[in-house]
């Protein structure tokens, strides 16, 4: 069952093609990370999904209904948090949520209860009667999450929900998102890859407006996991890097202090112990040798390079 | 349509909190009180200015007609300027400050969004205008003598239609502009165009939305509202066209980041 479906979506700005022939599905009740380098078209794609921008061609379905630009009839199906949301600074946090609740036609009693609950969830109860203009970026971001949840949506769409925040603000917002898991489909764009590792079930990666991959995070990791070797040496391995590079089994090398990460060309190389034999011949002491699970960052870079 | 009420309420609270309401009250209060006062004092003021020795200016006793002259002049100039500046940002500033993103991704139709701005601006301006006209009338009959309330009410109605027309132009340019300054500039520029078109084409003159500003004396002395009907009808038609155009362009607009 899909929450969001995109079919052959294209968006051109003059000659520039921001999104080209993009198609993907977001499955129900999954947390999906929407990734891509800067300028990949993530924000454009999200703005097309929520109906703020008009597709050049293609079709978007959300909660089973087609999104039509300029028509608000699908807007009650999702909650949306734009990147660095702008509020009416003259309102208090409470007033803003009340206004949004009225727009969603929530009855007064339900609205008040919902606002109380959400202000608790995003930890803004104390600041509820202060003007939004006096809020910090982190508070605004949390208020942004609260307003996106006011209608208890089945689908939550967030554009870079943590990128503008300091480490503490980021942890707070991520824990709010973690607590929402399983209750709804969450589709979030980010370039903070460690956050994806922490909260996402699936990833959709785009680059230059095109789909690179749409897969569950665990499958993606399994696919790439067997192929990264991490070795810790007793001393700086600088002098042998050149030699490793000339070996045809080493696709890529990354050095961090006395650690080396080596991307291996195939699994057979490992089963024949070829790298181990190579290092045994060197004069450097090997402290540890093993395969590592790739981090999202490794997958991300590998996938983009592959394409 | 159930979003119309919260949207209008939000607009009116915003007009209040951003001090725009206060500015309008002070402005129209000032116009209502100073117009008769200046009319009453004008001969004294002129008398105190010596132009050259030996020359004296003799002026007739001021009447309520002079107060009406002042009123129309003030509304046509400072009144309109302030109304345009205050409401030119209604849509443009929401684009500029990016508040549109949150609101338009909610179940608020674009027509409701634009119309709520128009209705709120009209409700606020109309209320303040009517109150200020009551003050003007009472104050003028107190210090300059009585005149027909009915004729004055007809004059006020004509002025109100003109204000409504100004609000509709302002809204239209606010919709198509990216910033408040651009909207103000375009509104003033279009005013000049309107005045030129209606002023220089004799056949159109009676249909000008600004007809009342040039022919108010007829209305206040004779109560000849029928003469004003073409202008009132053309104003209402132009307002409808401007609103439809505002909705049309706003529905086509992509909300920029």
What are the defining features of this structure?
heterodimer; A: 307 residues; alpha/beta; Rossmann fold; Alpha-Beta Plaits; 2 domains; 4-stranded antiparallel beta sheet; 14 strands; 29% strand; elongated; B: 257 residues; mainly alpha
Q: Could you explain the architecture of this structure?
A:
The complex is a heterodimer of chains A (307) and B (257). In chain A, helix 2 packs across helix 3 (108-121) and helix 3 packs across helix 4 (137-149). Chain A contains eleven helices and 14 strands. The radius of gyration of chain A is 23 Å and the shape is elongated. The model of chain A has no long low-confidence stretch (mean pLDDT 90). Chain A has 307 residues and is of the alpha/beta class. Chain A folds into two domains: 2-216, Rossmann fold (3-Layer(aba) Sandwich), CATH 3.40.50; 226-306, Alpha-Beta Plaits (2-Layer Sandwich), CATH 3.30.70. In chain A, strands 6-7-8-3-9-10 form a six-stranded mixed β-sheet, sandwiched between helices. Chain A has a four-stranded antiparallel β-sheet with strand order 2-1-4-5, covered by helices on one side. Chain A has a four-stranded antiparallel β-sheet with strand order 12-13-11-14. The longest helix of chain A is centred in the middle third of the chain and has 14 residues, at 108-121. Chain B is mostly helical. Chain B has one domain. Chain B is built from ten helices and no strands. Chain B has helices at 4-17, 20-48, 64-87, 89-96, 100-104, 110-144, 149-176, 180-200, 211-222, 229-252. In chain B, helix 2 (20-48) packs parallel to helix 6, helix 4 packs parallel to helix 7 and helix 6 (110-144) runs antiparallel to helix 7. In chain B, 40% of the residues are buried.
């Amino acid at each position: 069952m899909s929450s969001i479906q995109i079919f052959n979506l294209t968006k051109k700005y003059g000659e520039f093609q921001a999104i080209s022939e993009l198609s993907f599905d977001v499955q129900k009740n999954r947390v999906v990370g929407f990734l891509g380098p800067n300028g990949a078209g993530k924000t454009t794609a999200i703005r097309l999904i929520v109906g703020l921008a008009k597709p050049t061609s293609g079709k978007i379905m959300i909660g089973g209904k087609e999104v039509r630009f300029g028509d608000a009839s699908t807007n009650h199906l999702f909650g949306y948090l734009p990147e660095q949301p702008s509020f009416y600074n003259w309102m208090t946090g409470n007033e803003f949520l009340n206004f949004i609740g009225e727009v969603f036609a929530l009855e007064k009693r339900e609205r008040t209860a919902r606002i109380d609950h959400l202000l608790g969830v995003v930890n803004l109860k104390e600041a509820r009667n202060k003007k939004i203009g006096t809020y910090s970026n982190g508070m605004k971001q949390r208020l942004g999450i609260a307003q996106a949840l006011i209608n208890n949506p089945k689908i939550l769409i967030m554009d870079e929900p943590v990128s503008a925040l300091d480490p503490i603000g980021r942890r707070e917002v991520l824990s709010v998102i973690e607590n929402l898991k399983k209750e709804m489909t969450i589709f979030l764009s980010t370039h903070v890859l460690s956050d994806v590792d922490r909260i996402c079930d699936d990833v959709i990666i785009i680059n230059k407006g095109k789909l690179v991959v749409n897969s569950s995070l665990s499958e993606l990791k399994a696919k790439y996991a067997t192929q990264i070797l991490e070795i810790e040496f007793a001393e700086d391995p600088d002098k042998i890097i050149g030699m490793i590079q000339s070996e045809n089994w080493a696709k890529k090398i990354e050095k961090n202090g006395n650690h080396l990460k080596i991307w291996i060309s195939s699994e057979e190389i490992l089963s024949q112990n070829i790298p181990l034999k190579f290092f045994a011949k060197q004069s450097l002491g090997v402290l540890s040798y093993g395969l590592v699970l790739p981090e999202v960052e490794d997958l991300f870079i590998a996938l983009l390079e592959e394409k | 349509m159930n979003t119309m009420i919260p949207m209008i309420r939000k607009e009116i609270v915003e007009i209040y909190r951003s001090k725009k309401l206060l500015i309008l009250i002070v402005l129209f209060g000032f116009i209502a009180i100073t117009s008769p006062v200046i009319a009453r004092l004008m001969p004294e003021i002129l008398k105190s200015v010596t132009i050259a020795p030996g020359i004296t200016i003799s002026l007739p006793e001021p009447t309520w007609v002079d107060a009406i002259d002042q009123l129309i002049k003030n509304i046509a100039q400072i009144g309109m300027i302030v109304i345009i500046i205050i409401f030119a940002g209604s849509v443009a500033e929401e684009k500029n400050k990016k508040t549109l993103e949150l609101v338009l991704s909610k179940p608020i139709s674009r027509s409701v969004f634009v119309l709520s701005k128009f209705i709120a601006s009209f409700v606020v301006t109309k209320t303040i205008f009517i109150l200020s006209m009551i003050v003007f009338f009472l104050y003028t009959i107190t210090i300059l003598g009585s005149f027909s309330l009915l004729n004055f009410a007809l004059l006020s109605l004509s002025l109100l239609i003109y204000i409504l027309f100004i609000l509709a132009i302002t809204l239209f340019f606010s919709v198509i502009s990216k910033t408040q300054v651009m909207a103000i500039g375009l509104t003033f520029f279009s005013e000049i165009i309107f005045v030129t078109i209606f002023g220089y084409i004799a056949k159109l003159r009676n249909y000008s939305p600004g007809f009342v500003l040039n022919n108010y004396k007829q209305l206040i002395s004779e109560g000849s509202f029928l003469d004003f009907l073409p202008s009132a009808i053309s104003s209402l038609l132009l307002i409808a066209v401007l609103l439809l155009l505002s909705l049309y362009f706003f529905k086509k607009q992509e909300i920029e980041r």
